[in-house]
Design brief:
Number of strands of chain C: 19
Shape of chain C: globular
Largest sheet of chain B: 5 strands, mixed
Oligomer: heterotrimer
CATH class of the domain at 271-406 in chain C: Alpha Beta
Number of domains of chain B: 2
Strand order of the largest sheet of chain C: 5-2-1-9-17
Chains: A mainly alpha, B alpha+beta, C alpha+beta
Number of helices of chain B: 9
Helix content of chain C: 25-40%
CATH architecture of the largest domain in chain B: Orthogonal Bundle
């Protein structure tokens, strides 16, 4: 088993897929929580969600697991990419891959790096502030909690930040458009029939992610 | 037809190679790409120059010996054919054509456009067979096989071992080649007996010989002259997982 | 001086092989690993033999000129493999397969060998299925069959249109297993240049390493040649570009008799020639004749209009189509044997009814089959062949009939072998297309794969032991012996002679010229005058070759022009022997059609009283006339009849 994980690229890819699918599920949860922001102008609903996320024990346990998922996914991607880089010592003068494969599938690592860069910014802007202070508090139904709503509203009042956010979300969507079905392919869950279903799902999910996350800055811009 | 050819010339495995430019005229559109090279070589020999060395044999698309990366694509611009079945009518008169050898760590160049693909033999030697000695076999109809399984096995078995999958893959991965054999044998009852041992041995060998990992871009199946689907790679992954879960 | 002894075992036909196996000499397991066998060629015969020897415990060295054993030209066989399984319950039997093969070969094959071939044919299918060869199946999971030319039963097993590929990959897989086990050592990109004979026995070979140009020597207690046929003597053929007769020719020059060199099969269904630059001809599987109907326009003016592109096939109404095979041979129709179908096509084209721009083409039409079975069924059966045809010609065969014309495909002739597949040089065994043994003057469709695998899996593993049992007293072969030195020197001399000519014309020029002579005079139809002319022209061309060939580069590196030159030099000698043999055989039989000997209806006229023998030629030295030896053919179990497919 250890050999399987550590020594073969097929094994490494397997764990990338598992972590990838885990992150995909996380995104669904994250998006659901985020979207609460647009349903309540007062921000109360969103703040309650933020509070729930910050206090619920299951979510608390999942947080380090999520971090581990990210770390494994990133480390394995780096190992595999570096290895693959060495597999063509002399490059082609002309190498046309444009119509034999999708752009996303060929640039998963670049897209991944883009997402990682944004993730860093994102963590500094939201997670660190929420965790270590710097956010004001509100009291809802007698419970004192962080005023996440105001923090978000403030950030998205800056058009530059909103643009960066939307670009990052598009990168993420591209990443998923390949990653979603690729993960299933790598764990072996594909045949001629399922391949069509899963690639279809991948595109749908990517669109949902792109549109879903982009709604928030757009909402604040036009509000 | 008239073409400008930019062909990779390399004296031997140790030398550094470079592109040479050749002008060629009066090529019939019905000529195959290799026949076009024959015509070029004929001219070169008459001029006392060394002809371009390239691998080829059956010239009917089945032996898998011909290769060539033409204008950025393995086996050139036509779909589902090997270079020997690529015809010049697929090009435009006056085109500049870049001709390069397969490039991959696992396929070192021997001379000009000829590469060493013995790594493929070695991968198959690691386990791409069913261990049956001559004379051991029961009557053929004692092993009924559902037609659908037999058909899928046949689709995978149709691999000609040309290496286009490796050549086109951005990671120089040999997964489609390995998957074709693993999937072929895994779909047959007589192949199941050794399935676990086989998949592990072949993957180990593949990695040892310097091929990249699969990122499911799917270029390989598009360039595969026999149209082998990457769902066979999913089958390989499944077999590999099964083999490893059973420790 | 050669003596032909076919060593056919005594006893009734059906018991000969069993009896042989029961009484032959065997080699004990501990001695097997002390014995070396060289196998040259990795096609069906070579790969299956090498794998089987390895499994038995011998030390095997196997050689191929390609980069991998899997490239051997057996891979290109499309249609199928015959076996007397009678799975279709249509009255097939070992005897019937034997009978069909002898009759198909126009009574010029050896009874005992052919019977054995039919006997082991079923085992081949068993073996292949066990190896994982994905033969076509019915929905019930059992194997299915199709029928082929020259027979009245369905006994052909197939894997789409890639049967040869699948069978070769099966044998190659077994070979790989033995390579991994260490019993077989593979030498790829090596070409055999000469045979080494020590004390009258085959003891090794000299090879050229095609990458480094080095001349290498290998010794063994027995040598097996499985190097295929010599169809490439015609330049244009369905053979692979590298297929050659040089290994067999080297053996011939070292004392192995060459049998029936004139027996060449011209395959009726190939894509017609389309230009001067063409390098090879592509076969369309004979299985297409199961459902396709062959015709030419009845009216010459229609044919001419089609040639000029003024009309297409679809413009010709049914009543103006001449389905000449159905007309001439009502019993077999489009499924007559290959030689008959080829000659009939030539006859129609010579009479002015041909349809390709060159006038050398006939139609193979699927319109009727599509009407009868639907496009889907046809696609299922022949999809990949149709696709291949469209790729090559740019014409869609679902809409327009295919155009086909005969092309050189297979050589029935080859090195003479006895019942044990041993040549006239002790210790030199010959298998597959390289030998002459089973197909007489014409081979039936789907029988080449059968013969190659029968030789490799089920005949040689027995017979070679009978020989090697006496070799256990012989220590390891000394490759420093003077015979090896001499052979190596000869090879090096030939190479430097070729390199030193430095004339004006590339090798292919001579090969094309030779091909033209062979096709015109030693092709589908032959006569005395033409054959005599061919002999003279080949001699002149040979002289010209040695004066004017130009090989660039050097001999101590990878040099494809040098490889070709060596092969063409041998073809220039072999072609002459073929013409000599064709000239001497004053009869028409199978693929050998002498215009002087035909019936009033234009059918082949055999002369059993004078020519019912195998013509085995002995090399007598450079510039000397080869000597003819005759092995009379006795038919004890088959009544010799005029071959009729009417």
């Amino acid at each position: 088993m250890v050999r399987f994980i550590a020594k073969t690229t097929v094994g490494q890819k397997f764990w990338m897929s598992i972590t990838g699918l885990f992150l995909i599920i996380f995104l669904a949860v994250h998006l659901t929580a985020n979207l609460m922001i647009v349903f309540d102008d007062t921000g109360e609903l969103y703040n309650e969600v933020v509070h729930f996320m910050g206090t619920n024990p299951i979510i608390r346990i999942m947080e380090p697991v999520l971090a581990l998922g990210f770390i494994i996914h990133i480390i394995l991607a780096t190992i595999l990419t570096l290895r693959n880089q060495g597999m063509r010592p002399v490059n082609y003068h002309v190498h046309k891959l444009g119509h034999t494969s999708s752009w996303a599938s060929r640039n998963m690592f670049i897209l991944g790096l883009t997402i990682l860069a944004f993730l860093t910014l994102h963590i500094i802007n939201f997670w660190v502030k929420l965790k270590f202070g710097g956010v004001g508090t509100v009291t809802i139904d007698g419970v004192e909690m962080e005023d996440g709503y105001t923090m978000v509203a403030t950030l998205f009042s800056m058009p530059v930040y909103s643009i960066i956010y939307v670009i990052a979300v598009l990168g993420l969507a591209y990443h998923i458009s390949h990653g979603f079905w690729s993960a299933f392919q790598t764990i072996g869950w594909s045949n001629e029939k399922w391949r069509r279903i899963l690639t279809g799902c991948a595109y749908c999910y990517a669109v949902i992610i792109a549109v879903g996350f982009s709604i928030i800055p757009i909402y604040f811009l036009i509000k | 037809m008239k073409f400008t050819l930019k062909i990779w010339r390399q004296k031997d495995s140790k030398s550094k190679g470079k592109f040479e430019t050749y002008q060629i005229d009066n090529i019939p559109s019905d000529a195959s790409f290799l026949e076009m090279l024959d015509i070029l070589n004929d001219e070169l020999v008459r001029k006392g120059e060394e002809p371009v060395a390239f691998d080829h044999d059956c010239r009917e698309g089945i032996c898998g010996m011909c290769s060539l990366h033409i204008n950025g694509r393995a086996h050139g611009p036509d779909e589902d054919v090997t270079t020997c079945q690529l015809f010049m009518r697929k090009f435009k008169d006056g085109d500049t054509i870049w001709v390069e050898p397969w490039r991959a760590k696992g396929f070192p160049v021997i001379k000009d456009l000829i590469v060493d693909r013995s790594a493929f033999d070695k991968i198959l030697q690691a386990g791409g067979y069913i261990s049956v000695n001559t004379g051991n076999a029961p009557d053929a109809n004692n092993i009924p096989i559902p037609k659908d399984d037999a058909d899928v096995a046949m689709d995978a078995a149709t691999c000609i071992g040309c290496g286009a999958c490796v050549a086109t893959c951005k990671n120089s991965s040999a997964m489609l080649f390995v998957a074709a054999k693993v999937s072929h044998l895994a779909h047959l009852p007589q192949g199941r007996i050794e399935a676990k041992r086989r998949v592990k041995a072949m993957i180990d060998k593949m990695e040892e010989l310097g091929f990249g990992s699969c990122t499911n871009t799917g270029s390989c199946e598009v360039e595969c002259p026999k149209n082998i689907s990457i769902t066979h790679i999913a089958k390989l992954n499944r077999e590999f997982l099964k083999a490893n879960l059973d420790v | 001086m050669i003596k032909l002894d076919s060593k056919i075992p005594e006893g009734p036909l059906a018991e000969k092989w069993t009896k042989y196996k029961e009484t032959q000499k065997l080699v004990s397991p501990n001695n097997k690993r002390k014995l070396d066998i060289i196998v040259v060629g990795t096609g069906l015969a070579g790969a299956s033999a090498a794998a089987s020897f390895g499994e038995m415990g011998f030390n095997v060295k196997v050689f191929c000129y390609q980069d991998s054993p899997r490239r051997a030209h057996s891979i290109a066989a499309q249609g199928g493999i015959n076996a007397a399984k009678n799975y279709q319950n249509d009255g097939d039997s070992i005897y019937r397969l034997f009978y069909d093969t002898i009759k198909g070969g126009d009574y010029r094959a050896r009874e005992a060998n052919v019977y054995r071939l039919a006997e082991v044919s079923g085992n081949i299918i068993d073996q292949a299925v066990a190896q994982g060869v994905p033969f076509a199946r019915e929905y019930g999971g059992y194997l299915t069959n199709r029928s082929f030319g020259g027979v009245l039963v369905s006994r052909t097993f197939y894997a789409k249109g890639q049967t040869g590929q699948q069978l070769l990959l099966g044998a190659y897989a077994s070979l790989n297993r033995q390579i991994a086990a260490g019993t077989v050592k593979l030498y790829h990109r090596r070409e055999m240049m000469d045979l080494v004979v020590v004390d009258g026995k085959a003891r090794g070979i000299i090879v050229r390493n095609l990458v480094t140009g080095e001349i290498e020597r290998y010794g063994a207690h027995a040598v097996v040649l499985a190097t295929g046929g010599y169809g490439n003597v015609y330049f244009l053929s369905t053979n692979a570009m590298g297929s050659n007769g040089s290994a067999a020719w080297a053996a011939y020059k070292k004392g192995a008799a060459f049998a029936n060199p004139a027996f060449v099969q011209i395959h009726p269904t190939c894509i017609p020639l389309h230009g001067e630059f063409q390098s090879k001809l592509t076969l369309m599987s004979e299985s297409l004749r199961n459902d396709g109907r062959i015709w030419v326009p009845k009216k010459k003016e229609d044919a001419e209009a089609i040639r000029k592109g003024l009309k297409t096939a679809n413009d010709i109404p049914d009543e103006d189509r001449d389905f000449y095979l159905e007309r001439r041979y009502p019993a077999f129709g489009n499924l007559v044997p290959r030689d008959v179908a080829s000659r009939a096509a030539k006859e129609r084209c010579d009479a002015g009814h041909g349809v390709a721009p060159t006038g050398l083409g006939v139609f193979l039409d699927f319109k009727y089959a599509i009407e009868r079975l639907g496009k889907k069924k046809i696609e299922e059966r022949y999809g990949n062949l149709f696709q291949m045809y469209e790729k090559i010609t740019g014409v869609d065969p679902y809409k327009h009939p295919m155009m086909i014309y005969p092309a050189v495909h297979y050589t029935m002739g080859g090195l003479w072998v006895d019942y044990e597949l041993q040549s006239t040089i002790p210790g030199l065994f010959v298998a597959g297309e390289a030998n002459f043994s089973d197909h007489g003057a014409n081979r039936l469709g789907a029988s080449a794969l059968m013969q190659g695998l029968a030789d490799g899996y089920f005949v040689l593993p027995y017979t070679i032991q009978n020989y090697l049992a006496d070799e256990i007293y012989h220590p390891e072969i000394d490759i420093k012996a003077k015979e090896f030195d001499e052979a190596e020197k000869n090879v090096k001399d030939k190479i430097s002679k070729l390199m030193s000519v430095q004339g004006k014309e590339p090798v292919d020029h001579f090969h094309r010229e030779l091909g033209k002579i062979m096709w015109d005079y030693v092709g589908m139809s032959r006569n005395r005058e033409g054959l005599e002319k061919a002999i003279n022209e080949i001699k002149a061309l040979r002289e010209e070759f040695w004066k004017n060939v130009r090989i660039p580069g050097s001999a101590d590196t990878l040099n494809p022009e040098l490889e070709k030159a060596g092969r063409v030099a041998d073809f220039l000698e072999l072609g002459e022997l073929m013409a000599i043999d064709a000239l001497h055989r004053e009869e028409s039989c199978g693929g050998h059609f002498r215009e002087e000997y035909q019936t009033e209806e234009g059918e082949a006229l055999r002369r059993d009283d004078q020519f019912m023998y195998v013509a085995a030629w002995e090399y007598k030295g450079e510039g000397q006339k080869p000597e003819l030896h005759k092995e009379p053919l006795k038919y004890e179990y088959i009544e010799v009849k005029t071959r009729s497919y009417k």
